[in-house]
Amino acid sequence: xxxxxxxxxxxxxxxxxxxxxxxxxxxxxxxxxxxxxxxxxxxxxxxxxxxxxxxxxxxxxxxxxxxxxxxxxxxxxxxxxxxxxxxxxxxxxxxxxxxxxxxxxxxxxxxxxxxxxxxxxxxxxxxxxxxxxxxxxxxxxxxxxxxxxxxxxxxxxxxxxxxxxxxxxxxx
Length: 172
Hints:
By secondary structure, this protein is mainly β. The chain has strands at residues 2-5, 12-13, 20-21, 28-34, 40-47, 54-61, 66-72, 90-94, 112-122, 159-169. It has one domain.
């Protein structure tokens, strides 16, 4: 996760990666940012593995009980993040360069807020668009989720996930 400067579509990174590991955890990370209505952020997802990976990035908002899909791999347009070849790594750049950026604001009167960015990767394509939840309470008649009993088969796929706790703090 990188802080950006400039205006769309000419934004550039002005920071190193602001995501830091949480002590004693292998899959939990954090990013502390100051609330600034002009601050924009981008993500770089790199594949340094020896096989192609499909990546899926979501933002979980616990205050609103919503889940927003920020990046979903597909098999036609985006394809997988290609495996590492020599020093070259496959990468996705969301919010960087000519991509629309991400921003975080505080609810009115709140000194801080917290949300979660979750990255899932898999060696096979998965349709994870159903995870997105745009409103609460759930409206089961609207088709959110899978109510017909269909389940993805995860038994034969290799996959992993990591979570970033995004803490937004009031600027001094």
